[in-house]
Amino acid sequence: MDKLSNYFRATIEEMRYNVTWPSTTELQKSAGLVLIGSLIFAVVVGVMDISFESVLKAFYNSFR
């Protein structure tokens, strides 16, 4: 149990004094980039889904 408590103490000390945390403006810029990237990715996947669906429907309907 002593090793576990030492681990948590060392972790807290590392997070407080040795980690370089980004500023608020850096976090906002990064969050904006992630949001824009996610939206672009969602649009691309949506377009691919719709196009594959229409191609497969046309293919399956050709055998009716």
Task: List the topology elements.
Blueprint: H1 2-17, H2 24-61
Protein described:
By secondary structure, the chain is mainly α. It is 84% helix and 0% strand. The chain has helices spanning 2-17, 24-61. It is elongated. The N and C termini lie far apart (70 Å). The relative contact order is 0.06. The model has no long low-confidence stretch (mean pLDDT 95).
Q: Tell me the fraction of residues in β-strands, as a range.
A: under 5%
Gross morphology: elongated
The count of DSSP E runs of length 2 or more, i.e. the number of strands, is 0
Mean pLDDT: 95
Could you give the distance between the termini? Answer: 70 Å
Largest sheet: none
Q: Output the radius of gyration.
A: 25 Å
Helix content: over 70%
> Which stretches are poorly predicted, pLDDT < 50 over at least 5 residues?
none
Helical segment count: 2
Order of helices and strands: HH
Structural class based on helices, strands and sheet pairing: mainly alpha
Features:
single chain; mainly alpha; 2 helices
Short description:
The chain is mainly alpha-helical.
